Amino acid sequence: MYEIVCCQKAFSGDYSVSEYSNGTRILEFPSDLEVFQVEGFETAVRNTVSRALKVDPANRPTAPVLNYDFVIAFSEFSYGTDSLIVSTTKNEPSSSSGSSRVAEY
Fold first, then answer.
1. pLDDT band at 56 (very low <50, low <70, confident <90, very high)
2. Is residue 105 part of a domain?
3. Burial class of residue 86 (count of CB atoms within 10 Å of its CB; 0-12, 13-18, 19+)
4. How far, in Å, CA of 68 to CA of 99, rounded?
5. Helices 41-52 and 63-76, packing angle to 10 deg
6. Rounded to an integer, what is the distance from CA 42 to the centroid of its chain?
7. Is 35 in contact with 41 (CB distance < 8 Å)?
8. What is the extent of the structural domain holding 11?
9. Could you say which DSSP state residue 45 is in?
10. 30 in a domain, yes or no?
11. What pLDDT is stored for residue 79 in this prediction?
């Protein structure tokens, strides 16, 4: 997910992954991305990606929850016909895995 948003790898190799997992490395986000030019969107993306990269898998959101978060983030920061994404999300997915509903488009 980080790679899709930032167009680069989150970690340069095993050592940087190790540093991140033991808390000695903070995940950096490039500040010059076009998508970050929309006020407030950078915070939404950073928060969502950071939650997805939690070291403890039990603390990571499920895929449907992440999908929902991105749909909401894009919807909140879209403008008229130039919207970043068009959504008709009807149901918020549950945070548990299994039979969660995925946002409908």
1. very high
2. no
3. exposed
4. 15
5. 170
6. 10
7. yes
8. 2-82
9. H
10. yes
11. 53
